[in-house]
Amino acid sequence: MKTMIKILTQACICIAILATPITAEAKKKKFPDVSFDGLEKVERPKSKADAVYIQPGADLSGYKSIIVAEPQIAFRKYWKEDHNSGRMADRIDDKDMERMISRGKKLFIEQFTKTLTKKGYPVVHAPEGNVLVARAGILNLDVEAPDPNRTAGTWSKVYTEYAGSATLVIELYDSTSGQLLARAIDHKDDIGEQFGWYQDRTQFTNINDAREAFDSWARMLANGLDEAKKG
């Protein structure tokens, strides 16, 4: 278990360096053909991930179920300080961030469980020969209007075009051997996009937008596995 966490941490550091600062130009940056730990970049158009890496010789076609591990969530560096700059109200403190991370982890597991099951990959809790472990890291999380103290209907409103942005790094392991099999990286800079419209952001809209982002990433994973089965 410690080895898995160490590998994921190293991967997150590597991708964070690659994707910082995250801009449209940075998204187009070519990912290396071979990752720092020997995985090879492959094309998986249906997954729609920015990059997909596979362990040489790995066969994902036999896996039927998935264990969804608790994700790691990390805000963009100085996000809190940037948000609080010049503000007298709606300031963020460390406890607010802890609550947001805790809620985000819960929403991630709930939505991945719901979406993967619907896509034909039931979520289980015990390792077996045909079970994958999905370990995710959500990096550079940037929430436009975190809304720590208000809810919909109050006089103070914040309108933004997007709810925020984040980068997903998700790794797949064989549940019995612990072998790392694959890694996918995807960045979203338009979470909660309203097609050019600005929307009032509250705790409720932020939660809904997070669910939609997690649903999109879960479908990305399921589509990638479907494509792997076809060879």
Describe this protein with a few key phrases:
alpha+beta; 7-stranded mixed beta sheet; two-stranded antiparallel ribbon; 5 helices; 9 strands; elongated; DUF3313; signal
Strand content: 15-25%
Most strands sheet: 7 strands, mixed
Helicity, as a percent range = 25-40%
Head-to-tail CA distance between termini: 30 Å
* Number of DSSP strand runs: 9
- Give the C-alpha Rg: 18 Å
State the helix count.
5
Structural class: alpha+beta
* Average residue pLDDT: 82
Order of helices and strands: HHEEEEHHEEEEEH
Number of domains: 1
Question: Any chance you could write out the topology, listing elements then pairs?
Answer:
Elements: H1 2-18, H2 24-27, E1 40-42, E2 51-54, E3 65-68, E4 72-75, H3 79-84, H4 94-118, E5 131-143, E6 159-160, E7 164-174, E8 180-191, E9 199-200, H5 203-229
Parallel strand pairs: 3-5, 4-5
Antiparallel strand pairs: 1-2, 2-8, 5-7, 6-9, 7-8
